[in-house]
Amino acid sequence: MKIGKKQKEIRKTIGEGKKYSLDQAMQFLDGCAFTKFDQTVDVALRLGVDPKQGDQQVRGAVVMPHGLGKKVRVLVMAKGPKAQEAQEAGADVVGADDLIPKINEGWTDFDVVIATPDMMGTVSKVGKVLGPRGLMPNPKLGTVTFDLKQAIKDAKSGKAEFRAEKAGVVHTVIGKLSFGQEKLKENLKSLLEGVNRLKPNTAKGIYFKGMTVSTTMGPGIRVETSEINKLIGA
Known about the structure:
Number of strands: 10
Low-confidence stretches: none
Number of helices: 9
Mean pLDDT: 91
Oligomer: single chain
Distance between the termini: 40 Å
Largest sheet: 5 strands, mixed
Helix content: 25-40%
Strand content: 15-25%
Order of helices and strands: HEHEEEHEHEHHHEEHEEH
């Protein structure tokens, strides 16, 4: 992929391997606003965990105070009164066994799947479609629940899911560049607090080992880890 002139200038200014305060990093992000579309702001956290160990997996979701800047289509798998509840709560699609053939044929016109616990046997029939796309309902993410009203509200308002992948790195979104620095920092604070709450008891040493922020088209900007402690009050 070719790097544009503006991108080259930003990369040169940031410098390779340098770390910055959060305020400085946010200023650099503003400098990445050179595209016609509203870029997404991403965060990568390097944690002191080994995801290969069953007791050191970190996975969860956080409702962002300022949302994520996109419309979220919610599919709910439920029956009877719970299906009615989901419709009244604003779900975009509600169904049960009737949706299985459609999904297995490749239909995935939705961003979040929520299911009541009694529907998980049915949902498993489309696991091969939902799983690879990160759409499989999961109790840890609050998407397997009987409290459909709250789950739909959380999904619609902007909930960031996160999971420590290989090398203990978490990648997730905290909003759009147009949110401005303060809102992005408040969303980031919520994310860090959520990840911190899920720190495994077996994780030894430093938990937050590194953080990088970036935009869709911009380079990664490394942030001093001390800034994480400031945000979460550690």
